[in-house]
Write a structure and sequence with these properties.
Blueprint lengths: L2 E5 L13 E2 L9 E2 L2 E2 L1 H21 L3 E5 L12 H23 L3 E7 L2 E3 L9 H19 L5 E5 L12 E3 L6 H18 L2 E5 L15 H8 L7 E6 L21 E7 L15 H11 L5 E7 L5 E2 L12 H16 L3 H12 L5 H19 L2 H4 L4 E2 L2 E2 L6 E2 L2 E5 H10 L3 H25 L4 H21 L4 H17 L5 E5 L7 H11 L8 H18 L18 H4 L2
Helix pairs in contact: 1-2, 3-4, 4-5, 6-7, 6-8, 7-8, 8-9, 9-12, 12-13, 13-14
């Protein structure tokens, strides 16, 4: 392995006031005041970036990723206001690139395909005649004017979320493998001439025919076969879906001779956002062991901050509360750089951060932390199932998503269709609370944040009560307990999980529900005729109706977050 990337997102959330944060991209409005570039605000971000880069370089990272190509690229049709602002961004980023280079880290610029200015909608609507030539020219100009930049990272399987506001928004311009090949064929010569690296992400969320690129070997082959260049690398998440547990290593790492990077997440977006420990070391140790057989693996991209939507706002390497993310980041990097075991990596971190004689107690805490996540957050019997819906592998975690806990009659019926030992799942959930008490005591001995375990305990107590509702005997006392616990939880924490309670009857009988699941979900990767003709084609036509929001809803639904259901079902 040669390239060890870390995401440089955290510094840009300095003094960010939005209550709920989209952690997938730099909030460029945070760099502005009244729609204009704010030099004073950027000075603070630059100060944080220096601290962040010092920490990352000290660990051994040699590359940092920064958003995005849109704010570094000019076009003659942009109006004077936008052009002037982009010149300010370019000079500001020039400083960041220089700061990274001075610390031995190469900057890589991210981009969606395709972005367009809000003031000029439709400017790049024609991909072949407008978007592709502009992207090629933008990359050429980037390399010419910012020679320390090492390359560009392209995302084609996801676009900006519905909550992104500002001068630019991205859309899904690449919909098929032939279009992706055309994109790569049109861009690679510019990267080869400049001796830069084109990093193409295989991450997709199921939209359009390319939406299964992350796991479907046929789509993978149709996209990349024959596109051989030392200046092309594929960046792939470790599993066949997002950053969850209970996932085998993605077999596409061994599919071709293309150079590849593995994407690992240290700040776990589905497992607490770093508000409590969610240790990944032993999982990643196993992935790295298997990846030793992949001759073409050139490195890793470790996400210390990126991913998800939440009100939680701890920033890694920039404040004491980032300790759990920093531990995951350091251990992940040591594993991919040096091999060895997660235990060795933890001991090395403990010696440096906690002092002598504390590593074994930290390991004991982290073993409890892993078991708590595996058994108290995930419902292991469901999580181990391999399920696909349309072009997506179904996530192993459904009842908790980002910072939402979903407690409803429909979720109760769904989970009971897939779990054969309901009493055991309840026992596991309550046993997790004992583990949290033990972790709290260890944390006090180690000088680690104790209050994090108070928050985790109350959150997992809510999850345990939810699991009693999912798998226990339904009754008024249980409903009353759920509402009382939620009220107590909300009073106690300003930043917390949002507990969604909807206990109104879901009237579809369980036998019919099982039949519906048999039709909707499949256990093999290959498509059935039902998937191709009904679930993919028909649902794409019905997506606008399915995505309609209920009028007067007090809370936005999960289907309205990120890209929105209408986009995902295309």
């Amino acid at each position: 392995m040669k390239l060890f990337l870390i995401d440089g997102l955290g510094p840009f959330f300095r003094d960010y006031g939005r209550r709920r944060i989209n952690w997938s991209k730099i909030p460029f409005e945070n760099l502005e005041r009244g729609g204009a570039f704010d030099a004073a605000r950027f000075a603070g971000i630059r100060e944080d970036f220096a601290r962040f880069a010092d920490a990352a370089a000290a660990l051994g990272f040699n590359g940092v990723t920064l958003d995005d190509l849109a704010h570094l690229s000019l076009h003659p049709d942009y109006d004077r206001r936008l052009t002037s602002k982009l010149h300010r961004y370019r000079e500001a980023y020039r400083e960041l690139f220089a700061m990274a280079a001075a610390r031995g880290m190469t900057a890589y610029v991210t981009t969606d395909v395709m972005f367009e200015a809000a003031s000029r909608p439709g400017l790049f609507a024609d991909f072949r005649r407008a978007a592709l030539p502009f992207l090629r020219a933008a990359c050429e100009a980037l390399f010419r004017e910012f020679p320390t930049v090492g390359g560009v990272i392209f995302r084609v399987g996801e676009c900006d979320a519905r909550d992104v506001r500002g001068d630019f928004a991205s859309r899904l311009a690449i919909r098929t493998p032939p279009q992706a090949r055309e994109l790569l064929g049109g861009l690679l010569p510019a990267f080869e001439r400049a001796n830069k690296l084109l990093i193409f992400r295989t991450w997709t969320v199921g939209a359009h025919p390319i939406g299964d690129l992350i796991w479907n070997r046929n789509t993978f082959d149709r996209t990349f076969a024959g596109l051989d260049s030392p200046h092309l690398a594929l960046s792939m998440k470790y599993g066949e879906t997002d950053f969850f547990r209970y996932l085998p290593l993605n077999e596409l790492f061994f599919r071709s001779e293309h150079r590849k990077l593995v994407e690992l997440q240290a700040r776990r977006e589905y497992e607490g956002f770093g508000e409590f420990p969610s240790f990944v070391g032993w999982d990643y140790e196993e992935y790295v062991r298997q990846l030793a057989c992949a001759r073409n693996l050139i490195g890793a991209w470790i996400w210390c901050q990126t991913g998800g939507w939440s009100g939680f706002r701890r920033r890694t390497f920039l404040e004491p509360g980032g300790v759990w993310n920093e531990l995951n980041t350091a251990v992940s990097l040591r594993l991919v750089r040096e091999g060895g075991s997660a235990d060795e990596a933890v001991r090395a971190w403990a010696r440096e951060r906690l002092g002598p004689g504390k590593s074994e107690r930290l390991l004991a805490l982290l073993r409890l932390a892993e078991a708590t996540i595996l058994e108290g957050l995930y419902i292991d019997e469901f999580a181990r199932r391999k399920l696909f819906f349309r072009r997506l592998r179904v996530p192993p975690l459904l009842h908790v998503y980002w910072d939402h806990i979903l407690i409803s009659h429909s979720m109760r019926k769904l989970l009971r269709c897939f779990v054969s030992d309901p009493a055991g799942k309840i026992t596991q959930s309550w046993a997790a609370l004992d583990k949290i008490r033990s972790m709290r005591a260890l944390a006090a001995e180690l000088g680690l944040p104790v209050r994090d375990f108070d928050f985790q305990y109350d959150t997992f107590r809510m999850l345990a009560a939810a699991r009693e509702y999912y798998f226990g005997i339904f009754g008024p006392d249980r409903v009353e307990r759920l509402y009382a616990l939620r009220a107590e939880y909300e009073r106690k924490y300003e930043r917390r999980y949002h507990v969604h309670l909807d206990l109104s009857p879901f009237r579809l009988p369980r036998a019919q529900l099982r039949l519906a699941f048999a039709l909707l979900f499949r256990s093999q990767r290959g498509y059935r005729w039902l998937d191709r003709w009904l679930l993919i084609r028909l649902l794409s036509l019905l997506a606008p109706l399915l995505a309609l929001r209920r009028r007067g809803a007090a809370q936005p639904r999960l289907t309205d977050q990120a890209m929105g259901l209408r986009t995902v079902l295309k």
